[in-house]
Design goal:
Organism: Natronobacterium texcoconense
Pfam families: DUF488-N3a
Number of helices: 6
Order of helices and strands: EHEEHHHHEH
Protein name: DUF488 domain-containing protein
Strand order of the largest sheet: 1-4-2-3
Shape: globular
Length: 146
């Protein structure tokens, strides 16, 4: 059986029919604390694949501080990632969290069985950095290593 495809997009693109995804793709939310409306944009949500709460809060605090210093929303968001070392912290979380590991294993298995998946979060990655790109890389590494 052919392996499924892996894509990613953001919730507003799904809601406004702007996401270019395989028609059969299952939309997998990867949001720790989804807004009530988020569930209608995805087929399922895997909160354990969202950033841990302490990392989210540290990033948000840094972002607010950077906005107060005059950075625009996108600039503050991206600079906050660097300030809190988001990339490395999130990768460490994925490697050490049993829940995240189990969820990644489940998605890997689904891809290998032929299901196409699209990871969905809030951020438009044309403007802001997003953890789902790290998740996608991690899954691509896992299925490529098989």
């Amino acid at each position: 059986m052919a392996r499924g495809t892996l894509a990613d997009t953001y919730a507003a693109a799904v809601q406004h029919d702007l996401a270019e995804l395989p028609e059969e793709a299952t939309l997998i939310g990867v949001v720790r604390k989804p807004a009530p409306w988020f569930h209608s944009a995805v087929d399922e949500n895997r909160p354990e694949l969202g950033p841990p709460v302490d990392l989210l809060e540290a990033t948000k605090d840094a972002e607010e501080e950077l906005k107060m210093q005059g950075l625009c929303a996108e600039g503050a968001h991206n600079a906050a990632w660097d300030r809190v070392n988001f990339d490395e912290q999130f990768r460490t979380y994925l490697e050490t969290s049993n829940e995240a590991g189990d969820a990644l294993e489940d998605l890997q298995s689904r891809l290998e069985s032929g299901e196409s998946l699209a990871l969905v979060c809030y951020e438009n990655t044309e403007k802001k950095r997003c953890h789902r790109t790290i998740l996608r890389e991690r899954l691509e590494d896992r299925i490529g290593a098989e």
